[in-house]
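Request:
Um, any thoughts?
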Amino acid sequence: MIKFKSLNRSKDFLKILKKKKLNTKYYTIYFDKNSKNLNKYLNISFVMKKKIGNAVTRNKIKRKLKYAVQKIARENKLIDLNYTYVIFGKNNVYKDKFENVLNEVNETFKKIKKIENRL
């Protein structure tokens, strides 16, 4: 199982938010290559806006997204540990089934892999 390491400092978030992004129905993901090679952990943060709902709703969305990313990382090996990711969840994650969210996460990381290969 791959362990997640979340970003802690505000300047780390700001640096990633200026880089590449992909929008989907369920979330917006920002990503950039790590400056340091820490291959033990997956640098990923899940962020929710307060406008989305109460704490229960926001936490359920984060849990669904975390589990989808964890499942993709375990099975398909699509996620590159040399990248840092910030995921802003949307309200559609709460409403839709997990299978739909999982397929969307899978497709997004395939797109990121293609973008990486072009660079």
Remarks:
- The mean pLDDT is 88.
- The chain has one domain: 3-118.
- The two ends are 28 Å apart (CA to CA).
